[in-house]
Amino acid sequence: MSAEAILVGCRKLPEGDGDERAVLPALADLGVRARWAVWDDPEVDFASGLAILRATWDYTDRLGEFLDWCAAVPRLCNPAGVVRWNTDKSYLADLAGAGVAIVPTELIPPGGTPRWPDAEFVLKPSIGVGSIGAARFAADETEAAAEHLAGLHGTGHTALLQPYQAHVDAEGETALVFFGGVYSHAFTKGAMLTGSDLDGSGLYRSERLGVAEPEPSFRRLAEDVLDAACGLRGLRRADLLYARVDLVRTAGGAPALLELELTEPSLGFSYADPAAPLRFASAVRQLL
Ligand SMILES: Nc1ncnc2c1ncn2[C@@H]1O[C@H](COP(=O)(O)OP(=O)(O)O)[C@@H](O)[C@H]1O
Ligand SMILES: [Mg+2]
Predict the structure, then answer these.
(1) Is any ligand 1 atom within 6 A of the Cβ of residue 162?
(2) Is the domain of 180 the same as that of 251?
């Protein structure tokens, strides 16, 4: 096999956040040459292989430049069209339209003013990663919320308004990870809107992760989410090297989609069984 796999990071995290530690050896075990590169490093020739977005978490302020770069890479995982769709959380409305149970979401474009909910709620940017710009408000904190909304709109972006999902405080969210469209493993992420600190890179808030064994209703919804996304984008599931479906439990107990990460999700290898990196490597090999 001659083509190589290029894991793509950013200047502040040129080799990711460490979660992929076991991935390079797994790729080597399967005979796939692999290395890390920084997406906006002009010295790198991304045409030499399969470019795999892994930690490009600095694109939020330069999305246009990033998406242009994605479109110019000959072989990108996931495909540039998917990345374009998935980097704006407005995709949640598309998925809801396709029948997926999402966390109720109101999109508020610049200039728009919401009718504030009468229970705790969240405001966050439609283009954002690492919980940056997400904030939680009590029903009587509308003044602070309006200020936060103005800040989000000030950057030219649409905001998302969602009811705060209280189950997140007790059980966090569950991230279900798929490789090549096939379920691999899951992990939990503790509640983030509790004053969590920024990581040293400043690119994301520090996370508390753990091992998860999702119940059938969560497994089923995650499968439905992938099918719906592929239907909307005209893809087969195997076209997606990786996918992470973040689900939360709603007040009634049923799961709902918080986020579908097809761009550069942390894949939680540190919280998966030891064979997970090999499953990822096998999916890479299939695409090579
Ligand atoms: N509606 C919500 N209810 C409860 N917690 C939320 C809600 N929206 C976001 N959060 C918290 O904020 C974090 C970041 O929000 P998310 O939508 O996952 O954006 P991103 O991870 O892309 O920054 C989540 O991991 C979760 O802990
Ligand atoms: Mg998230």
Answers:
(1) yes
(2) yes
Q: What is the pTM (predicted TM-score) of this model?
A: 0.95
* pLDDT class of 225 with cuts at 50, 70, 90: very high
Which residue from 95, 120, 122, 203 has its CB within 8 A of the most atoms of ligand 1, so it is best to mutate?
Answer: 122
Q: What is the mean pLDDT of residues 260-266?
A: 96
For residue 128, give the CATH number of its domain.
3.30.1490
Do residues 258 and 104 lie in contact, with contact meaning Cβ atoms separated by under 8 Å?
no
**What are 79-114's pLDDT values in tens digits?**
999 999 999 999 999 999 999 999 999 999 999 999
Please report whether residue 282 resides in a domain: no
Closest CA to 70 of 200, 263, 221: 263
Contact yes or no for 39/9 (Cβ under 8 A):
yes
From the CA of 127, the nearest ligand is 1
244 an active-site residue? yes
What 8-state DSSP symbol labels residue 12?
S
| Ligand 1 close to Cβ of residue 173 (< 6 A) | yes
Q: Which residue among 86, 192, 203, 266 has the greatest number of ligand 1 atoms within 8 angstroms of its CB, and so is best to mutate? A: 192
Q: Are strands 209-211 and 242-249 parallel, antiparallel or unpaired?
A: unpaired
Give tens-digit pLDDT for 161-196.
Answer: 999 999 999 999 999 999 999 999 999 999 888 866
Range of the domain at 68: 4-79
Residue 51's nearest CA partner among 61, 60, 41 is: 41
Of the three residues 163, 189, 208, the one that is the final residue of a domain is 163
Which of these is catalytic: 20, 259, 261, 264? 261
The answer, yes or no, to whether any atom of ligand 1 lies below 6 A from the CB of 87, is no
- Of 130, 146, 163, the residue that ends a domain is 163
